[in-house]
Design brief:
By secondary structure, the protein is α/β, with parallel strands linked by helices. It is built from 9 helices and 16 strands. The protein folds into 2 domains: about 240 residues, Type I PLP-dependent aspartate aminotransferase-like (Major domain) (Aspartate Aminotransferase, domain 2); about 110 residues, Aspartate Aminotransferase, domain 1.
Length: about 375
């Protein structure tokens, strides 16, 4: 039986996708070559790119006035590329909800004047600051929000309405770790970016979905390959894109379109399944005398569930026992310790059932 991989990223990919990619490794659809060998301008790869683009647009219901861009560099690079494109060297507002938004804030200092509008650092990033408490600058070029913090396990379940908060400022979201896990309210978003390696496919691909009216504002120092207007003009082909990562992402999207749950399909089906998985794990933690989760319940992440053993002397024994049961990559991030189970789309319900079964038996034996 294949092990269950709870890694936060690079993360699990659906087995169906891996098997199809293996079959097509040396010869894609009888064309005599594999995807890694194709010219990015050849008709074979162009067909892959166009299908992936269309599937993403359909799955996330991306409006026509947004551009979908395929770039490289990951979410870390976007921490520089976004201010290079949108800040014009001026003020930008940041909501600090965890480690990733902290990194974004620090990087932005090189290109603009960022301000902290709200922060949860004082309580160890165990909650998301309520939007009503945000101190927003009406002249800010944009507001940056990481909508799911993988390390601290904090998620924004409803995007803020900045206009209702009194500012007409574009909202930039880093949705790397829960992209394609739920619908997006595009009426509240100016730009969304995501590294693919958590919920879409292998590392190497970065998605940027940007409102058209925000294009053409890049600073003069912005490299052409990262100028959103240039990338949009050349349909993500200004330079050689990460072709194989796009191909795998396309297979994942086709897999996602096939998913059903009751009378739901696609993203809505996977959202329902993800909530079922998360509820099972959180209920197990909350009902335990050994395990705890420290995040405010309303802000708990569906994708990334950090938890702690109240007796930390048992940590290594827990991890060793989990590994013998085929439960992998459960060690928490080094900055916070403990454990972390990432429940991305590719994690089946059976994997979470196996995890909670092990957790209950481990607690029984150590009681």
């Amino acid at each position: 039986m294949r092990a269950f991989n709870f890694s936060a990223g690079p993360a699990a990919i659906p087995l169906e996708v891996l098997e199809q990619a293996a079959q097509e490794m040396s010869d894609w659809h009888g064309c005599g070559m594999g995807v890694m060998e194709m010219s990015h301008r050849g008709r074979e790869f162009i067909s892959i790119y166009e299908q992936t683009h269309q599937d993403l647009k359909e799955l996330l219901a991306v409006p026509d006035h947004f551009k979908i861009l395929f770039l490289q560099g990951g979410g870390i690079a976007e921490n520089a590329i976004v201010p290079l494109n949108l800040s014009q060297g001026q003020g930008v507002d940041f909501v600090l909800s965890g480690s990733w938004s902290q990194k974004s804030f620090s990087e932005a200092k090189k290109y603009c004047t960022p301000s902290i509008s709200a922060s949860a650092q004082a309580d160890g990033f165990h909650h998301l600051p309520n939007p009503s408490s945000w101190r927003l600058n009406p002249k800010a070029r944009y507001v940056h929000l990481c909508t799911n913090e993988t390390i601290h396990g904090v998620e924004c379940h409803e995007l803020p309405d900045l206009k209702a908060l009194g500012v007409d400022t574009p909202l930039v979201i880093d949705f790397s770790s829960h992209v394609l896990a739920h619908p997006v309210d595009w009426g509240r978003v100016g730009l969304a970016f995501a590294g693919a390696q958590k919920n879409i496919g292998p590392a190497g691909l970065t998605l940027v979905i940007v409102r058209e009216d925000l294009l053409g504002q890049a600073m003069a120092i912005c490299p052409s390959a990262f100028d959103y207007s240039v990338v949009a003009q050349f349909e993500s082909m200004y330079n050689t894109p990460p072709t194989y990562s796009i191909y795998i992402a396309g297979l994942v999207m086709q897999w996602l379109k096939r998913q059903t749950e009751d009378d739901l399909s696609g993203v809505l089906a996977i959202q329902a399944r993800n909530h079922q998985k998360a509820k099972l794990l959180y209920d197990t933690i909350d009902g335990s005398a050994l395990y705890e989760n420290r995040v405010v319940k309303a802000n708990r992440s569906v994708m990334n569930v950090p938890f702690y053993l109240k007796d930390e002397r048992l940590n290594e024994l827990f991890l060793q026992g989990a590994k013998t049961q085929g439960l992998l990559q459960l060690k928490g991030h080094k900055s916070v310790g403990g454990m972390r189970a990432s429940l991305y789309n590719a994690m089946p319900l059976e994997g979470v059932q196996a995890l909670v079964g092990f957790m209950r038996e481990f607690e029984r034996k150590k009681a």
